[in-house]
């Protein structure tokens, strides 16, 4: 007989989160689904640094100083750590409203705006919020069913509302927001220093080799362990990668340094939120570059509100084969019961109740059938039972 057994299947919250994100390591790593350019970033950084450490660093450490590869290794490790921290973290995604919360917000909006006649456009869903004596508008997100907090915006690529949304960066494969902006800034800053460092010492390497064996001989030089690869070709390749990277990465670092000094985001700068026709002042700026930098880069990091690794328990029923349980009617009477008790126990109903005694008379037991303590010896006169006198009276 099959028996239905309810088992609890453990489901993590990240498995049920909406939006277009990829989760790895049981929800510990969170990225966007479009990660192709992120892999290109890893290839360019790892490839350029590997060539530099394999060829130029050995020569420069002997000719100039052993501190050159050490400092390059520190910059490389710091850039990789901040890149992975930016790419694998929650940028500050705001959870979507639950169905009950969304219905309550909709009722609130309808009560405020009233019924809109057909054919007319409903008024914009906006709430006014005051920050530092400045009115800030909170916009309603039709996807997440919430009024977005100040400086939050909905990312169309990840399909999530992100707190203090800066921009979606395909080079790091994630959104840049409140929880990972400082790591993004430190990444581009360290990558700029690393690019300048490698570019400079590549030129120094070519110059030192040219002074010893001449520039033409340096171009023709091929290391013995790599017979099919010209050392100069690799060096020129590194120089070209660093040269073109300088224009983008160093320029991006300068732009974000300007934004940090003003306590402003890329999204606000593109939209002209504080530099438009109204000339509205930025309510988040402290009016001091040092204070703005300390708030953006050194302030407390807020915890994630997603609870990605929280547990959702779902019950699922599974059928198992097992023996059929026996009822009371099939149980044998215990050995300690007498014949009458055994007969009564066999007459029990399935619901556990004992039926009324039958009107059929039961024949008296003979002396042989009586228990030992009730059997009479020959010539013994039976004594009246104590209940007999009570019955007469």
UniProtKB/TrEMBL annotation:
Main location: endoplasmic reticulum
GO molecular function, one term: protein-cysteine S-palmitoyltransferase activity
Transmembrane segments: 37-55, 67-84, 183-208, 228-250
Catalysed conversion reaction: L-cysteinyl-[protein] + hexadecanoyl-CoA = S-hexadecanoyl-L-cysteinyl-[protein] + CoA
Renumbered residue ranges of the record's region Disordered: 316-393
Location within or outside the cell: Endoplasmic reticulum membrane; Golgi apparatus membrane
Pfam families, sorted: DHHC (PF01529)
InterPro entries: Palmitoyltrfase_DHHC, PFA4/ZDH16/20/ERF2-like
Known EC number: 2.3.1.225
Enzyme superclass (EC): transferase
Domain Palmitoyltransferase DHHC residue range list: 137-271
Record's keyword terms, sorted: Acyltransferase, Endoplasmic reticulum, Golgi apparatus, Lipoprotein, Membrane, Palmitate, Transferase, Transmembrane, Transmembrane helix
GO biological process, one term: protein targeting to membrane
GO CC annotations, alphabetized: endoplasmic reticulum membrane; Golgi membrane
Membrane topology (UniProt): Multi-pass membrane protein
Residue ranges with Polar residues bias: 328-352
Entry domain remark: The DHHC domain is required for palmitoyltransferase activity.
Record-stated family: Belongs to the DHHC palmitoyltransferase family. ERF2/ZDHHC9 subfamily.
Designated name of the protein: Palmitoyltransferase
């Amino acid at each position: 007989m099959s028996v239905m057994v309810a088992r609890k299947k453990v489901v993590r919250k990240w498995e049920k989160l909406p939006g277009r994100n990829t989760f790895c390591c049981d929800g510990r790593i969170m990225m966007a689904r479009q990660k192709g350019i992120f892999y290109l970033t890893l290839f360019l950084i790892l490839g350029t640094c590997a060539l530099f450490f394999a060829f130029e660093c050995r020569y420069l450490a002997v000719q100039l100083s052993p501190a050159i590869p050490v400092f390059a290794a520190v910059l490389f490790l710091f850039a990789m750590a901040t890149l992975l921290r930016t790419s694998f973290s929650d940028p500050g995604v705001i959870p979507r409203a639950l169905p009950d919360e969304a219905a309550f917000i909709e009722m609130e909006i309808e009560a405020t705006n009233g019924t809109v006649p057909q054919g007319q456009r409903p008024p914009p869903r906006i709430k006014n919020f005051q920050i530092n004596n400045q009115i800030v508008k909170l916009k309603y997100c039709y996807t997440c069913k919430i009024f977005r907090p100040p400086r939050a915006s909905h990312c169309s690529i990840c399909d999530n509302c992100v707190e203090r949304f800066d921009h979606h960066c395909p080079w790091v494969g994630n959104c840049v927001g409140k929880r990972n902006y400082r790591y993004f800034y430190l990444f581009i800053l360290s990558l700029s220093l690393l690019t300048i460092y490698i570019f400079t010492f590549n030129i120094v390497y070519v110059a030192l080799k040219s002074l010893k064996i001449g520039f033409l001989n340096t171009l023709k030089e091929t290391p013995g362990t790599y017979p099919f690869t010209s050392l100069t070709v690799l060096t020129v390749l590194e120089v070209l990668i660093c040269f073109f990277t300088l224009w983008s990465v160093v320029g991006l670092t300068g732009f974000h340094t300007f934004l940090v000094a003003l306590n402003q985001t890329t999204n606000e700068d593109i939209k002209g939120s504080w530099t438009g026709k109204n000339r509205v002042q930025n309510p988040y700026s402290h009016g001091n570059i040092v204070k703005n930098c300390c708030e953006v880069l050194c302030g407390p990091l807020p915890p994630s509100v997603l609870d990605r690794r929280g547990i959702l328990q779902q019950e699922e029923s599974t059928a198992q084969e097992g023996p059929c349980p026996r009822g009371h009617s099939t149980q044998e009477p215990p050995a300690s019961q007498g014949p009458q008790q055994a007969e009564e126990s066999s007459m029990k109903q399935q619901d556990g109740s004992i039926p009324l005694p039958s009107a059929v008379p039961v024949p008296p037991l003979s002396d042989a059938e009586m228990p030992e303590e009730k059997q009479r010896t020959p010539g013994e006169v039976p004594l009246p039972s104590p209940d007999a006198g009570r019955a007469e009276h």
